[in-house]
Automatic annotation (TrEMBL):
It comes from the Bacteria. The chain crosses the membrane at residues 20-39, 107-132, 144-163, 170-191, 203-223, 319-341, 361-386, 395-414, 434-451, 472-492. This is Tripartite tricarboxylate transporter TctA. The keyword RNA-binding does not apply. PANTHER family: TRICARBOXYLIC TRANSPORT PROTEIN. Residues 20-442 form the DUF112 domain.
Amino acid sequence: MDNLNLLLQGFATAAHPEYLAFAFIGVILGTAVGVLPGIGPSMTVALLLPLTYALDPTAALITFAGIYYGGMYGGSTTSILLNTPGEASSMITALEGNKMAKRGKGAAALATAAIGSFVAGTLATAALTFLAPVAADLAVKLGPVEKVALMVLAFTTVGALLGRSVSRGLAALGVGMFIGLMGVDGMSGQMRFTFGVPVLNDGIDVVVVAVALFAVGEALYVGAQLRRGPQQLVPVTRGWRTWMTREDWRRSWKPWLRGTAIGFPIGTLPAGGAEVGTFLSYSAERKLARGKAKEEFGHGAIEGVAGPEAANNASAAGVLVPLLTLGIPTSATAAVILVALQHYNIQPGPLLFKDHGDLVWPLVASLYIGNVLLLVLNLPLVGLWVKVLQIPRHYLYAGILLFAALGAFAVHFSPQDVIVLLVLGILGFFMRRYGYPVAPMVVGLILGPIFERQLRSALQIAQGDWLTLVQSPFAIVVYVALLLALGGSVLLRRKEDDLEHELVEAAR
């Protein structure tokens, strides 16, 4: 009941006309950027992150919540009409949705994706409202040993699951931790990993790294692969009021609910990630399909859009649970959100709801508001987003590079940050070129210094006895869960590979 009262207070704040305007601006910006080809939610929030720095914390977080959900919504339009998923979790939407569009059912695909995202986002945000404070109360009781175990779980699972190669994921994680530890050692006061370069003495700002890897690296990578000729955009000719037939509604509502039930729990796990949830949702819908729906799978089944899109957006809310209660990002987008919170000296963790309740509850309330605004805006304005998709890519990515440079410069108003941005952007390009995932690098960058502090505290309390790290019952449970997660990841990879093989065979 207390959580409900606090949520109502958050609504009272978020419903203020000024904050409603910021929420509206956030969803418009998030959707407008997220709908552009090849741009996923993580790149959207990283690119627009510096825009919130001129606002007070409440306004900035409300705007950022709109950008976050807007970026999630925008990706479905690109996937369906251009067959260009912004990230791995949109692959299934692109597969079935684009085939629906080519069959003249693009309007229905867009509608079921938008409505399913709204349903999943609302239900998952409600679960977040009541689950996150409970998890925070439990997390307060954790000591340094338990937190070290959680960090090891996050490091290993994120490095192993985000990317097709475990070794490359862990290598990216190690590079991120190395960058995160640059600068002054907090205990000894000595410089480390700076190579005598003065600009590295204070470390590298996380915002610069996030924008460099997600925006600059992606823009350079896509620019290097640009194809000549116009993009194959599938037109949407029907009015939005007649998009979904009664049959489409009948076939969509159950996948919406099942996708939510699959996506949210997976998003809350340190081994989560929207990609896993969307594949599981698609696999479940394919197995449950009967009759006409079964025949259409692989050729444009509406269930193959409704379920994965719901799972994708439910995961988006689910990742906020470990982020807000433990300070652990489980996805690339969550890592960028953590950067935004840290800019205002807000460290997510067990005490967040108590120390910064005046900011957190309006943020949660704005997720509900942003979800409604997105549904109201996305359906009527899809014609506008279709026109945005027609922007030539060389203009598009040149603009992204310009805004990324301005954003990096605005962090400290230092030209040196722009140079660091370019260097790390080139690193991000080569990581994509050779198959190294970017998300583990950002997670390592953020959690590396926190892990170091907790590990040192645990060893100081135990007077240097390393066995203390495996003597806590909670830590033992976490390490057993880690082994199970790694074993499960192997099975999931095999299942995904089998599913991709079946889809390729069906497409031939």
